[in-house]
Amino acid sequence: MPHRSSRLLRATGAIAALALLTTACTSNEPASQETTNTDPRAVSSNDDPGKEVVIGFSGPESDHGWLGAINSTAVAEGEEYEDVTLRVAEGTNDPSMQISHIETFINDGVDAIVLLPTDGAALTKVATQAMDAGIPVVNVDREFSSEFAARTTILGDNYGMGVSAGTYACNLVEENDLGGDAVVTEIAGTDSLPLTQDRSDGFKDALKECGQEVDHRVAGEFTVESGEQAASNLLQAVPEIDIIWNHDDDQGVGVKAAFDNASRDEFFFIGGAGSKNAMRWIQQGEMEATVLYPPTQAADGVRLARLLAQDKGMSDLVQREVPRRIVLNAPVVTEENVEEYLPLGFES
Question: Which InterPro entries does this chain map to (predicted)?
Answer without folding.
Answer: Peripla_BP_I, SBP_2_dom
